């Protein structure tokens, strides 16, 4: 009888222990079930807002900045005499600049130079059809001296090989002024919207969404789908609803969630669109998964309680035997295995971090590691230099000799760069594609330029097995200023790189301070 009461009391203790450990678990699961929809909605909104902002900044704003920079540089080098010479005979420095810029930059497919009398020249050469040069949307307000003007999408009609061609385009232009601020002409470029959209082809929007860029009249000009959307447009209500810099709204007619970001110049808008079905699936599917998880967790919990019951019973038996002087000779525990497993796990973690921050082809730091290092150096506010290196004619090398040879060239670039640069003062990173970045700690610019020049000569003088293969690179280098951001420093170095390319490539240009 006494033994039965003791056993009953012992079972009651087990039950109470199980209840005490289970109640917090049950309360937590119920709370999660009640609040999971709000949390998933918040994640949905944050992810799509962040995606829209980051994609617009990296893929659209950067191209716009490059376009404005090219227009500013070229317009500053033009003069009334040079403009008239090119219009009259297609000769002079202007022709050289245009023949270099238009084929080499992906966002231009034609350049148009015109004077105030309506005379014009187009590169590459073709004839406007049934339109006067001053009737197409090229000219911004003449009072806007420094601003670059982006037109709305329109049909550009021209003749080529005796055929009339109609193509929707956007023209970006800038008026030209002489030293007395008298307008003497205009320089304009037709944008290749299809090529500009290629930067979006690799973008995958969250929740199977679709990212598009539209003009102020609602015409879609770029899209992540990679399809020809020249005649597609968005509802006019989307334009009127996207009045702030960034935001979101729901389209009741199309049953879509729309996230937007507004650009200032040009007056474009970017949208990320997700169907309501995808939203509902994301928000509502998780509670069912959580219920399954609760059931599985509860099952595991009961199993563990059952196992713990026997473990505690055996432990109590062992303690009882030891307390009563009964010899209990248990085998020794093997901690050596545990120690070796911990060491192996640490090695695996270190290897994983190394893989995630190193470019596997060039064996130098990747973009992620560069961003971390640049942010750290800017926070330290010590003087340093940043060099951007771009392989000359790398696309031609890939197209002519194949991507395996292109990979060999990139591997050789990384190998020689690491061997030449002093690792105590310089770090190399692959910025993207055929672009590399070098960060130099300190202010010994002469030593840095000497190392870069040595690298350039070693690469240029390399004899390759492939016939007629010649590899060179161009470089722009800029110093960090106290008021610099990472973007502004990269922009100055990128401008120096552009100057090196324009000056004939295979050279190093130092940005002006």
TrEMBL record:
CDD domains: GGDEF (cd01949)
Claim: Iron-sulfur is one of the keywords in the record: no
Classification via Gene3D superfamilies: 3.30.70.270
Listed EC numbers: 2.7.7.65
Organism from which the protein derives: Leclercia barmai
Cofactor(s), by name: Mg(2+)
Highest taxon listed in the record's lineage: Bacteria
Keywords assigned by UniProt, alphabetized: GTP-binding, Membrane, Nucleotide-binding, Transmembrane, Transmembrane helix
Name the UniProt record assigns to this protein: diguanylate cyclase
Catalysed transformations (reactions): 2 GTP = 3',3'-c-di-GMP + 2 diphosphate
Transmembrane segments annotated in the record for this chain: 12-33, 290-312
Top EC category: transferase
The protein's annotated pathway: Purine metabolism; 3',5'-cyclic di-GMP biosynthesis
Pfam families: GGDEF
Domain GGDEF, first and last residues per copy: 382-513
Keyword Transmembrane: yes
């Amino acid at each position: 009888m006494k033994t039965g009461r003791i056993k009953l009391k012992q079972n009651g203790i087990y039950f109470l222990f199980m209840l005490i450990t289970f109640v917090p678990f049950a309360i937590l699961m119920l709370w999660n079930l009640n609040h999971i929809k709000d949390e998933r909605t918040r994640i949905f909104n944050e992810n799509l807002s962040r995606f829209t902002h980051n994609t617009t900044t990296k893929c659209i704003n950067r191209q716009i900045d490059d376009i404005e920079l090219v227009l500013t540089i070229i317009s500053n080098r033009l003069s009334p005499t040079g403009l008239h010479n090119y219009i009259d005979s297609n000769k002079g420095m202007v022709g050289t600049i245009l023949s270099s810029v238009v084929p080499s930059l992906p966002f231009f497919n034609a350049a148009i130079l015109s004077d105030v009398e309506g005379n014009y020249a187009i590169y590459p050469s073709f004839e406007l059809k049934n339109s006067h040069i001053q009737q197409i949307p090229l000219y911004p307000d003449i009072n806007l001296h420094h601003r670059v003007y982006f037109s709305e999408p329109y049909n550009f009609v021209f003749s080529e090989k005796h055929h009339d061609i109609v193509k929707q385009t956007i023209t970006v232009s800038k008026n030209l002024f002489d030293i007395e601020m008298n307008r003497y002409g205009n320089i304009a470029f037709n944008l290749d919207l299809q090529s500009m959209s290629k930067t979006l082809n690799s973008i995958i929007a969250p929740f199977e969404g679709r990212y598009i860029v539209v003009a102020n009249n609602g015409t879609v000009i770029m899209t992540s789908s990679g399809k020809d959307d020249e005649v597609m447009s968005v509802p006019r209500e989307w334009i009127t609803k996207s009045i702030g810099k960034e935001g979101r709204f729901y389209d009741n007619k199309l049953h879509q969630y729309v996230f937007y970001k507004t650009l200032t110049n040009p007056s474009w808008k970017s949208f990320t669109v997700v169907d309501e079905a995808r939203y509902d699936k994301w928000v509502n599917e998780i509670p069912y998964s959580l219920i399954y998880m609760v059931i599985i967790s509860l099952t595991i919990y009961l199993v563990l309680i059952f196992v713990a019951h026997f473990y505690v019973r055996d432990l109590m038996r062992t303690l009882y035997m030891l307390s009563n002087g009964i010899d209990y000779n248990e085998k020794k525990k093997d901690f050596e295995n545990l120690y070796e497993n911990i060491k192996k796990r640490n090695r695996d973690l270190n290897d994983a971090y190394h893989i995630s921050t190193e470019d596997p082809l060039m064996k130098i730091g990747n973009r992620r590691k560069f961003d971390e290092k640049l942010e750290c150096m800017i926070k330290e506010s010590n003087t340093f230099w940043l060099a951007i290196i771009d392989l000359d004619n790398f696309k031609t090398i890939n197209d002519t000799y194949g991507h395996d040879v292109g990979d060999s060239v990139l591997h050789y670039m990384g190998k020689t760069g690491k061997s030449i640069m002093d690792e105590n003062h310089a770090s190399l990173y692959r910025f993207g594609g055929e672009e590399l970045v070098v960060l130099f700690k300190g202010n010994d610019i002469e030593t840095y330029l000497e190392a870069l020049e040595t690298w350039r000569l070693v690469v240029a003088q390399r004899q390759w097995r492939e016939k007629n293969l010649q590899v060179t690179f161009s470089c722009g280098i800029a110093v960090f200023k106290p008021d610099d951001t990472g973007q502004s420093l990269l922009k100055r170095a990128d401008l120096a790189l552009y100057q090196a390319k324009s000056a004939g490539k295979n050279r190093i240009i130092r940005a002006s301070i």
